[in-house]
Amino acid sequence: MNTLSIILVGLTTLVFSGVQICSNLVYAQATPASLQISEVTRDKEIFRPAAGEQIKIGWRLSSRAKVSLKIYDCDQDLVAALSPEKIMAAGRHTLVWKGKDQHGRVVPNEAYFFIIEATAGANHAVYDPREVSGGMFHEIDRVKLLAASQQLEYELPETGRVSVRAGLVDGPLLAIPVDWEPRTKGVQRERWDGMDQEKLIQVGKRPDYRIRASYYTLPENTIITRGNKQVTFLDYKQAQTGAGPPKTWELPQLPASVLRSPLASKGIIFAKAPPLEVTFPGAPGDDKHPSLLPQGFQVRVDLPEPWKSALKAQPYEIYYFWDGKFLIENPNIRLPYETTLSLKEYQPGLHVLTVNLIDIGGQIGIRSTAVRIR
């Protein structure tokens, strides 16, 4: 029987290998070597453009050339062109990014990368760290629950994109305190009240709770923005592209030897946990406490927009749990999905039904609903 202890602890490849990450950047030198881009730096790793901060990007050019510097988001979409093919002399150069996109809007909180290209006649040099770095998967050894301050504490050995998931042994995944967010090297503290997403179960007080944390490395010279409280990254992208998967900027093909997530060429909507819609067709009662008959009732699972348009074609595995215990699973389903559950052996009263939905790349959605058996 597959249970969420397997999902939470065992299926590393399924749950974690397909996550969206920002493309990773290192040196890719020109041919011939007479034109080179080297000593690429940025003066800080995190900055707050909404507060007026800016970041300096520097590099050394071996000889006079036409140079472009473009900034991309983690969906590999073009954000800004700081140097649209400007002629530059040999030597050290610096450009400033104020954290704004091509339309002058402050970018949302996320991780960004940049590519530098230089051309002099037939010679061409590119700084594109996606070619050899980033995307390496690691487990985080220890996560401490600081109940008094409602925080999780862990140490990240290098800058990466982090996932923290909490659930029950032999039971469901119940909370995702950190959903593949960029974090810097060092000790991290994340807010989590110890509850499941719907505030129905005190996960952190259960003796059988478990927390799993993982990360993918982010590229050299990644830039992380903070402090934008006006718009989330997903809302920002959907405002640009409308419903459906964000548009992907076409970037050079990477060598097959480079470790890449299967979702690296798709939008971040394909990596983070989508919200689930769980309904009970025909059941009386209110939305918070539907009243169900133990001998059988219908459960319908679907996604809201924009996730529905973007993700509906994917196959899923779906798991059902009753009061934290495994109930049933159905592999290779499509959404929307409807099934009948029979709970003859359970006593009347208030219970919690939890649904976990997992796709082949490891994206997972969770939802718990309080239900009343009459």
Describe this structure as you would to a colleague.
It is elongated, with a radius of gyration of 23 Å. The chain is mainly beta and 374 residues long. The strands form six sheets. Strands 1, 3, 5, 6, 8, 9 and 17 form a seven-stranded mixed β-sheet that branches. The protein has a five-stranded mixed β-sheet with strand order 19-25-24-21-22, with no helix packed on it. The protein has four helices and 25 strands. It folds into three domains: 4-21 and 134-227 and 234-264, no CATH class; 27-131, Immunoglobulin-like, CATH 2.60.40; 277-373, Immunoglobulins (Immunoglobulin-like). It has helices at 4-10, 12-16, 233-241, 307-311; strands at 27-28, 37-42, 46-47, 55-61, 65-72, 78-88, 91-97, 111-120, 123-127, 137-139, 144-146, 151-156, 160-168, 173-183, 186-191, 209-217, 223-225, 277-279, 291-292, 297-302, 316-322, 325-333, 337-341, 349-359, 364-373. Mean pLDDT is 83; it is low at 1-32, 242-250, 255-259 and 261-265. 7% of the residues lie in helices and 43% in strands. The longest helix has 9 residues, at 233-241. A hairpin with a 2-residue loop joins β8 (111-120) and β9 (123-127).
